[in-house]
Specification:
The chain is mainly alpha-helical. Helix content is 81%, strand content 2%. It has a two-stranded antiparallel sheet with strand order 1-2.
Length: 185
């Protein structure tokens, strides 16, 4: 059965991409501490500004003001870096990988009910698997494991193009050849 490999691939790949939720939760564990550090340093800076840079009725020196300012900037920067790391996983391999896993499952099931030439069904099947690996798979390798070469492959556009071509072919074949009876190849 031609669609079977997409169904199996989709469920197995979904395990990997859905598990990134655990990675993000782990990163959020330290997020609270970083947010609190930022709040303390920025809060102090705001309080100093509100009191015309006086602390306990003593004017602060330029160095003391610079140190408070630096602590505030570093706190904001650290929080932004932590958020960016989580957002890169969330908006990249996690979201796209989950979607492409489900697409593979749906395509695999649909291919079981399409009365079309075996070569055309194989082409559609492989377009989705290759497209998934070249799109969210490269996002996964680049974002989670830091393999920068994966982003180079991602930039070729092969993955998204393969998925779009598969969707178009699936739509055309579905209009023309959908059967309510299972076709054995």
């Amino acid at each position: 059965m031609i669609g079977q490999k997409n169904i199996a691939f989709g469920f197995i790949y979904l395990v990997f991409t859905a598990s990134l939720g655990i990675v993000m939760v782990d990163k959020y564990e330290g997020f609270g501490k970083v947010a609190q550090e930022k709040q303390v340093s920025v809060g102090r800076l705001q309080a100093l500004k509100g009191s015309d840079f006086e602390e306990e009725l003593e004017p602060l020196s330029a160095i003391q003001i610079a140190k408070a300012n630096t602590a505030g900037i570093l706190g904001i920067n650290k929080l932004n870096n932590t958020e960016a790391e989580i957002d890169a996983i969330k908006g990249g391999p996690h979201a796209h990988g989950n979607l492409e896993s489900v697409l593979n499952i749906i395509v695999g099931l649909t291919l079981c009910f399409i009365a079309a030439a075996a070569w055309l069904k194989q082409l559609i099947s492989w377009l989705f698997i290759i497209g998934t690996l070249m799109h969210s798979g490269m996002l996964y390798l680049g974002t989670v494991f830091g393999f920068s070469w994966a982003f180079t492959l991602l930039d070729t556009g092969i993955g998204p193009f393969a998925i779009l071509a598969g969707l178009l072919l699936m739509g055309v074949v579905s209009i023309k050849n959908f059967s309510s009876k299972k076709v054995v190849d």
